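dumping these here so i dont lose them again. two proteins, back to back, each one seq then structure tokens. dont judge the mess
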Amino acid sequence: MRSDPMTPLPPCPQCQSTFVYEDGANYICPECSHEWSREAAPAEAAEVQRVWKDAHGNVLNDGDSVTVIKDLKIKGSSAVVKVGTKVKNIRLIEGDHDIDCKIDGFGSMQLKSEYIKKA
């Protein structure tokens, strides 16, 4: 019996199937018949760290400075963030708009990484 029913089981390390089930101290994959012990499957190590990249494929980090590469209309306003606008000290977040920043003259907003390049 599982100790915590809210914790999802890890995917199969061989075929990545999500239909894994527990059998005593082991996990079993019904699709490829692979068996492995619970101790061999650390849940935290299985999490993949997300990497944010700009429009040109450069890796972004918190605190980077970036430049806008496309005129961006601001929702609910007639203002536009122009091409070439520099944005300093970005913060990377999860979601569709994955950059949180402050732009001089516009204030705090979120941008998509596909519309910026690393400065």
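---- next one ----
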Amino acid sequence: MNIAGVVLAGGKSSRYGKPKMFEMYKDKLLYEYSVEALKENSISPIIISTNEKLVPYFSKNDLDFVIEGEAKEYQGPLYAMFNAFSNRPNNDWYFVLACDTPFITADFVKNMIERVANTNVDAIVPIQSDKLQPLFALYHRNCIGKMKEILDKNNRKVQLLFSEVNIMTVQFSSDDLIFKNINSPNDWI
């Protein structure tokens, strides 16, 4: 079984006003928190799903890039995941993390990865306060076909995938900061 890491970093950051994945928090760029949590668990390759304009701003060390085509820029996380997975189809699982989550930890990644063994589900998704966290989840390559079907119908919601595949949910405490993402400058307050 092999697991690739996929960091979603191609959004517009429209609420933030500039590419938030390059904001500093405690001497690290935001996207580096996700990359390091994956690296500390020996996940390889680590793929950055982004757009052409942002690639020059990333550190290139040990990272792979999947670029959203010009015609498909900013199509949302479901498209970004499908694009990354289908461009790297030789992995069994894909661990998806958002690029704007400075509280992600290697322990969280390890906890989630341990659930992959001896399971026959298509996705392993954290849940916090009854809310699924699809941008902190593991997806089996079996999801690629269902993602394509959803996208071909011009749907973009990741949640639609969960009614099409077999998922396992993993409960997390409501006060756990892991899932806090930074969408606007006010989120730092």
